[in-house]
Design brief:
The protein is α+β, with helices and mostly antiparallel strands. Helices cover 29% and strands 11% of the residues. Strands 1-2-3 form a three-stranded antiparallel beta sheet, with no helix packed on it. Strand 1 and strand 2 form a beta hairpin. The longest helix has 14 residues. The chain is globular. The termini are far apart. InterPro entries: Thioredoxin-like_sf. This is (2Fe-2S) ferredoxin.
Length: 93
């Protein structure tokens, strides 16, 4: 994993355990997501929200927000919603 993605993922894994959210949040490694200029990049599904310039601290914050149902749009770089806006919908926020 490049650009610190390994430490981001590890911090997020620890936060998932801390929040006891293993049954609700799955963290998966991917191949290149094609957004090098936005590294580290995370995508949240099924919402289709993409986050840029993530670090370990922000990754943990994202996990806390996901586990409590809070809004997560601060570092949103792209939104894709296959169920609500069609397969190619993209909106930069």
């Amino acid at each position: 994993m490049k650009n610190g993605a390994g430490s981001v993922a590890e911090g997020m894994r620890r936060e998932i355990s801390s929040q006891q959210a293993k049954s609700n949040i799955q963290l998966s490694k991917t191949s290149c997501m094609g957004r090098c200029s936005d590294a580290c990049t995370l995508a949240v599904y099924p919402q289709g929200d993409w986050f840029k310039e993530m670090n370990e601290k922000l990754g943990k914050k994202l996990i806390r927000r996901l586990s409590t149902g809070q809004a997560i749009g601060k570092r949103l770089t792209k939104h894709r919603s296959y169920s609500m806006h069609g397969p190619n919908a993209q909106t930069d926020r």
